[in-house]
Every structure is written in structure tokens, then in C-alpha cells.
Design goal:
With about 100 residues, the chain is mostly helical. The protein has one domain. Helices cover about 70% and strands about 0% of the residues. The chain has helices spanning about 5-30, 40-60, 70-90. The relative contact order is 0.20.
Length: about 100
């Protein structure tokens, strides 16, 4: 396998974890919708962020340029999924949801 293949697999795993974070957050919002009404603005922003996540993931899979083998380039590629993880964690903070 080429170095690029290893990096793409690793980044796809990270994107998968972030997508799971979004879907779990939406599940929590809709399960608790009897107690609190979800904001349409919040859902619109989270849908936009999720669509950008999927778009970046799709663009990553179409990436065919050779990736330099430097650690700095790999860390640079990690910034997008890590930022999406921070956004999804902030949007769906479980401490803010009411306990039943």
C-alpha cells in the first residue's frame, strides 16, 4: 500500500467518528423533544455542518495527488475533521440536555 492509502484510511476513521457524533447528537435532540423543543436554527446549523463534513469526506476520497510524507502535511490534513469534532461536540453537548 502507498502512504496515501494509509493516511486516507486513518482520516476516514476520524471522519466516521465525527459523523457518529453528529448522528448521536441528533438522536438525543429528537428523543428529548418531548421535554424541550429543538431550535430550528440549531438544527439548520447542524445540518449545514454535517453536509460540509460529508462534502469534505467525499473530497478526501477523491484526493489522488501524492501526499508528502512529512508529519506536518499529515497534521494539516487532520485539522478539518478535528474542527468538525469540536463543532459537533459544542452543538450537541450532552450536559446541556435535560436528564430524565
Amino acid at each position: 500500500m502507498r502512504m496515501l492509502d494509509h493516511v486516507l484510511v486513518w482520516l476516514s476513521i476520524i471522519y466516521g467518528v465525527v459523523a457518529t457524533q453528529f448522528l448521536n447528537g441528533w438522536k438525543d435532540v429528537f428523543v428529548n423533544s418531548r421535554h424541550t423543543k429543538p431550535s430550528t436554527i440549531h438544527l439548520a446549523w447542524s445540518a449545514l455542518a454535517f453536509s460540509l463534513l460529508v462534502e469534505n469526506w467525499w473530497a478526501l476520497l477523491l484526493f489522488e495527488k501524492p501526499l508528502s510524507t512529512s508529519v506536518l502535511a499529515f497534521i494539516g490534513k487532520l485539522t478539518h475533521p478535528l474542527l468538525f469534532f469540536v463543532v459537533s461536540s459544542a452543538m450537541f453537548a450532552s450536559d446541556l440536555l435535560p436528564r430524565t
